[in-house]
Design goal:
Strand content: 5-15%
Number of helices: 8
Strand order of the largest sheet: 1-2-3
Shape: elongated
Order of helices and strands: HEEHEHHHHHH
Number of strands: 3
Radius of gyration: 25 Å
Largest sheet: 3 strands, antiparallel
Helix content: 55-70%
Distance between the termini: 76 Å
Low-confidence stretches: 1-5
Number of domains: 2
Length: 202
């Protein structure tokens, strides 16, 4: 039967595995060791991933959980690191298998495309109007190119927030960004620089 030192070592090993998964995964994997009383009571290992959408959150329901009943803990404490691994693997597989969310405009019926394009163009114009003053107010320690990169990063964070609010997946958001870049490069190639006013490289 494991003694107190063995129990402490098992907990330390389990926490080390949890930290390993947190550092390894490109997703936000969180592993907790919980004390659970009542129905299903015991030491509980619970793994979760921050869902990128409702589908991923729902896919994790009831998964990523392992329990060692209190009466068996002395004998089974050594299983804790392996239970952490199993819980994480299960939850990662569930999130990976979740349906990828699509653009609302691709799945909703009767979209008012005129209103859609109007809002898109208004957002584009407003963002352009703000970008130039932001770069002009940048500290002298930043070059114009680096200041524009910083503005771009801020815009991407705002775009990411909008895509989450719309329930879109990252692949859909990436496709929209690629389409927008292709459209603007096409305008430049055709000599439509005036349509990109105000010029940010002037």
């Amino acid at each position: 039967m494991p003694n107190q030192t063995d129990m402490g070592a098992a907990f330390a090993a389990a926490l080390a595995r949890a930290e390993h998964h947190r550092r390894r995964s490109p997703r936000k994997v969180r592993v907790r060791l919980l004390t659970q009383w009542g129905e299903g009571e015991g030491l509980t290992v619970q793994a979760r991933i921050a869902g990128r959408g409702e589908a991923e959150i729902l896919a994790q329901e009831g998964l990523g959980v392992r329990v060692i009943p209190w009466a068996e803990l002395d004998q089974r404490a050594g299983e804790l690191p392996a239970l952490v691994d199993a819980a994480v693997e299960e939850i990662e597989a569930a999130a990976a298998a979740a349906p990828v969310p699509a653009r609302p405009s691709h799945v909703e019926d009767s979209v008012d495309w005129e209103a859609y394009e109007t809002i898109a163009e208004a957002a584009y114009a407003q963002v352009l109007a703000e970008m130039r003053p932001l770069t002009e107010r940048a500290p002298a320690s930043l070059s114009r190119a680096v200041a524009l990169e910083a503005v771009f990063l801020g815009l991407m964070k705002a775009a990411a927030l909008a895509s989450v609010g719309a329930g879109m997946g990252k692949d859909e958001a990436r496709e929209m960004l690629e389409d927008a870049v292709a459209e603007l490069l096409g305008r430049l190639a055709e000599g439509h620089r005036a349509s990109l006013s105000p010029r940010l490289d002037a």
